[in-house]
Write a structure and sequence with these properties.
Layout: H1 4-29, E1 37-41, H2 47-55, E2 60-65, H3 67-79, E3 86-90, E4 102-108, H4 119-129, E5 130-141, H5 151-163, H6 172-182, E6 185-193, E7 197-203
Parallel strand pairs: 1-2, 1-4, 2-3, 4-5
Antiparallel strand pairs: 5-7, 6-7
Helix pairs in contact: 1-2, 4-6
Length: 207
């Protein structure tokens, strides 16, 4: 019989392995060269953060996630030789008082895992803690704006509904609107994992 804690570790291990490849792509896709401090909200064990730090030697990352996830994350970050640049806060990312004056905020696989009604507040909170000119990055499973597919993205969204019945099936157009309403400008959209995920990012005004 597999114990609950073993299941949690297996899930986190799988998430970590599955984030390393997309993390490398994300590092090429978005210019983080001007970012000193990135806040990774519900950033898991640091798969994306590791790749971003490996590609940007100036970058420091703070990850907020549940304590059992953080415990494994510290091991992964130590193995990558990045313990001096990637730090963890073990807490509920949605309730914790986030660090302020960060240069960027990343939310990967978070929008699909929370009640849909709470998403606009996540974007507004990211805007409020960010320095002028900061970057806001949202990565998640997204179906096309006309909801014609892709099928894998839709299936992953259905899986999230099993854990969060009030989660929302999101589209790039809807996410872009949330970001614009929060104040972000110059929003861009690209496919990160073909057939499954997209990434949108925008900037806070420098004024």
């Amino acid at each position: 019989v597999i114990q609950r804690e073993d299941c949690k570790k297996l899930y986190s291990e799988s998430q970590h392995a599955g984030s390393l490849g997309p993390g490398r792509t994300l590092a090429r896709m978005i210019d983080f060269s001007g970012v000193d401090h990135l806040l990774d909200v519900a950033g898991g064990t640091g798969g994306l953060a590791i790749r971003l730090c490996q590609a940007n030697f100036n970058l420091r990352v703070t990850i907020i996630d549940f304590p059992h996830v953080v415990s494994l994350g510290k091991e992964k970050v130590k193995e990558a030789g990045l313990s001096d640049r990637i730090s963890f806060i073990g807490d509920n990312a949605l309730e914790y008082n986030w660090p302020t004056d960060v240069d960027a905020v990343l939310m990967s696989y978070l929008y699909n895992g929370v009640p849909g009604e709470s998403i606009p507040e996540l974007a507004r909170k990211a805007y409020s803690i960010m320095k002028p000119g900061g970057i806001y990055v949202v990565h998640d499973f997204m179906v096309e704006n006309d909801r014609s597919g892709p099928h894998l993205a839709a299936l992953w969204q259905l899986q999230h509904l099993a854990f969060t019945p009030t989660a929302k099936s999101i589209t790039p157009k809807w996410v872009s609107g949330i970001m614009q309403d929060a104040g972000f400008l110059e929003i861009k959209e690209k496919v990160l994992i073909p057939g499954m995920t997209k990434v949108l990012w925008g900037k806070k005004s420098t004024k």
